[in-house]
Amino acid sequence: MCELLGMSASVPTDISFSFSGLIRRGGETGPHKDGWGIAFYDGKGCRTFHDPVASAESPLATFIADYAIKSEIVISHIRRANRGRVALENTHPFIREMWGRYWCFAHNGQLSGVKTLPLSAYRPVGTTDSEHAFCWMLSQLRARWDKMPTDRQLHAAIAEMAASLSRHGVFNMLLSDSRSLFCHRGTHLVWITRRAPFRAATLLDEDVTVDFAKHTSPSDVVTIVATRPLTGDETWSPLPKGALVAFRDGQMHER
Amino acid sequence: MCELLGMSASVPTDISFSFSGLIRRGGETGPHKDGWGIAFYDGKGCRTFHDPVASAESPLATFIADYAIKSEIVISHIRRANRGRVALENTHPFIREMWGRYWCFAHNGQLSGVKTLPLSAYRPVGTTDSEHAFCWMLSQLRARWDKMPTDRQLHAAIAEMAASLSRHGVFNMLLSDSRSLFCHRGTHLVWITRRAPFRAATLLDEDVTVDFAKHTSPSDVVTIVATRPLTGDETWSPLPKGALVAFRDGQMHER
Known about the structure:
By secondary structure, chain A is an alpha+beta fold. The first copy, chain A, starts with a strand and ends with a strand. Chain A is 20% helix and 34% strand.
């Protein structure tokens, strides 16, 4: 299995605090030591960082945690390999361009028989079931629409495909098109929205406390999604099981 | 204008020495201060690092120069913006998946009227003429072949498109499909192949000397391609003008 971390924020926000906690679970407080990756959107741009080594021992992970890249949408993943060997090409998140936007995807779970799903416009480079599922979703979307459909159409199509993939096994997913953070909880995915009045919070995996009031403006809204809670003194809620939830600008996005 | 740096090597090799010299030209010994990027192939995997700031002042660039990622193929670019604003999405190298492989592209020069070239399977996310040219090339290749053609067919098709793009202006290009490093010199592109007996070399942009004999095995072959020579005590040769040259495993690849 693996662990996921996602963020949707109303203003460019750095995810250093949450990411610092997550990377401890990659070989130190957790067994997810087979690589890690993180994607930061900056408007339409997206930059990813991947390292096929344990995040708790990766100098690059420590550097990124300190570099404090500000972003409106972040997707991160620490991997414990089950399908597909430990290799750079099997390290999430995966990224593709569709309709002139970067799409980014990370998955937790195992999907049986997913590699029989047909592909057209997008093909995997590595050998994971996850990347195949991502390429199948994009191939389906691209075959259906030559340009970005409406929010409602897009949400419905992704929800339908996520439900379909869930029938192959465990499908916890984070996906973004540079505007929305789409989340699907198969088994494990919790979330929290931080907004004024901001308080302090302490990581579960590291003895670090941050007072968000010192790092935010009163109008900021920041939602964090993760496989398991990252802090012990805040209330994380499970996402609705089997439903697709989209966050935009830090808030749950009503279609 | 911008500067390019590429590497093709017979064994995973770190490009720290050359990259350290290049990044000085991004705001210190050269004016290319509008962002930088680098892509490292590791087998079929490819990871890229982008920062839309001057490389000479980028802590990420310094980190990457020290991190000594070993790779068989590297493409790097420092940018001086002329078409397209300074933004993450306009920072080279650009990357796309085609035929189950990652394709990576960086360009130096300006291309007039290139945005009228038709696109199909691939579309730009940013606003540079470079990314449009890349998406046009991939769209053409993808429309022609549904899977990887022969080396000879691929080389001929890319050569033809590079010649066509050159008619729009200055087209110095580095491109890779994870196997070959394709180079097209419009105006400026020099190369050097290092092989046994290895010697020492000194950077032009920084007072750094490396003795390659200490960092290599006798069978290693490493080719470096750059806009301008990076060292002052080696003989760099211009690539043939207007021709497409491919390097594989460090050596010029005869089709």
